[in-house]
Amino acid sequence: MNQQQQQSGVKIENPKTQHPETPQMNDRDYINDMLATEKYMTSSYSTVLNEASHESLYSDIQGIFNESQQCQRDLFNLMFEKGWYSFEACDQQKLNQSYQQFQGYSNQFPY
């Protein structure tokens, strides 16, 4: 992947693939809509898996969940490759602060 880092805020992104700026939906809009749908579906399947009591039903839903999760990941990767999804890089100090903050919570877990 061709990743670029810009100095202001250190953004991790790819060059944007051009798309028409019109009121009609374009490829970016469709893919973004599919990605949002897959995120919603994987979240919903996760809830169902937590509550399924029948083993065969659980297995079937788990297979569907895995397919949906992979589709979500593929759509995410496609959007990132086309430059339609980017990240703000985080410096090591902020990562260490977050790690320390949440590490302190671990003694509250019952397991």
Primary descriptors:
111 residues; mainly alpha; 3-stranded antiparallel sheet; 7% strand; disordered N terminus
Description:
- The protein is mostly helical.
- 59% of the residues lie in helices and 7% in strands.
- The protein has a three-stranded antiparallel sheet with strand order 1-2-3, with no helix packed on it.
- Strand 1 and strand 2 form a beta hairpin.
- Helix 1 runs antiparallel to helix 2.
- It is flat.
- The relative contact order is 0.16.
- The N terminus is likely disordered.
Helical element count? 3
Based on Cα principal axes, name the global outline: flat
Q: Oligomeric status of the shown chains?
A: single chain
- State the low-pLDDT regions, or none: 1-8
Spatial strand order of the main sheet: 1-2-3
Give the strand content: 5-15%
Please provide the ordered H/E string of secondary-structure elements.
Answer: EEHHEH
| Major sheet details | 3 strands, antiparallel
Class of secondary structure makeup = mainly alpha
Q: Radius of gyration from the CA trace?
A: 19 Å
Query: What is the number of E strands?
Result: 3
- How far is it from the N-terminal to the C-terminal residue, by CA? 40 Å
**What is the residue-mean pLDDT, rounded to a whole number?**
86
